Amino acid sequence: MQIWTMDPYACGDKRLPHHIFPPKRLTPDQLTTKAGVMCYKIDMEDTMNLKKRLSRVKAASNVNSSDVLAISEALNGLSGMLEELYEPVIRDTDWVVLITDGMCYFDVEPLEDEWIRLQCEKGDLVVIPKGLTHRFTVTPQNYVQVQRFFHKRHDAFRG
Ligand SMILES: CSCCC(=O)/C(O)=C/O
């Protein structure tokens, strides 16, 4: 995973990196300290380890069901969907996502107008804590597949 401070006045194609100048990168630990976001790298071939990590994270975040979302150019209405997913949201539950293929960005806003961009790829497991403003988009590859975990009661989610 790559993490950096995003240009707060970025305009144009959301899928571009939108670094500030000079670029300011963060480590996963710095991201956790600043925003409370937890990131894990999982070897997807190591199924025992994957199961163990997922069950720990699911218990800690109190999520108990999941779905799979694939975003690609094959999708009807892709640009409308991406517009919607880029709208900032605040959830009242942790938002737990495992990237199973492709790449994507999560942007989080720990302070007003201070956006941090997480570039995620296969094997990245991200926990965005409840209450933290965030949004989502793809990279120029236009392809990602994720497993999203949520509370059973939480039947209204985007995408
Ligand atoms: C790949 S998850 C897309 C949706 C999303 O990020 C969301 O709804 C967060 O709350």
Q: What's the short story on this structure?
A:
The protein has 159 residues and is of the alpha+beta class. It has helices at residues 28-35, 47-61, 78-85, and strands at 2-5, 38-41, 65-71, 95-111, 114-121, 124-128, 133-138, 144-150.
Question: What is the helical fraction, as a range of percent?
Answer: 10-25%
The count of DSSP E runs of length 2 or more, i.e. the number of strands, is 8
Which residues sit in consecutive blocks of at least 5 with pLDDT less than 50?
none
* End-to-end Cα distance: 23 Å
Major beta sheet summary = 8 strands, antiparallel
Order of helices and strands: EHEHEHEEEEE
What do the pLDDT scores average to? 94
Q: What is the strand content?
A: 35-45%
Listed once per kind, the bound small molecules are: ligand L3FJYLFB
Structural class of the secondary structure composition?
alpha+beta
Shape descriptor reads globular
Q: In angstroms, what is the radius of gyration?
A: 15 Å
Instruction: Tally the helices.
Output: 3
Pfam family, one: ARD
InterPro entries: ARD (IPR004313), RmlC-like_jellyroll (IPR014710), RmlC_Cupin_sf (IPR011051)
GO molecular function, one term: acireductone dioxygenase [iron(II)-requiring] activity
What would you say this structure looks like, in words?
This protein has 159 residues and is of the alpha+beta class. Helix content is 19%, strand content 36%. The chain contains 3 helices and 8 strands. It has helices spanning 28-35, 47-61, 78-85, and strands spanning 2-5, 38-41, 65-71, 95-111, 114-121, 124-128, 133-138, 144-150. Strands 1, 2, 3, 4, 5, 6, 7 and 8 form an 8-stranded antiparallel sheet that branches. It starts with a strand and ends in a 9-residue tail after the last strand. The mean pLDDT is 94. The ligand CSCCC(=O)/C(O)=C/O is lined by residues 69, 85, 89, 91, 95, 97, 136, 146, 148, 157-159.
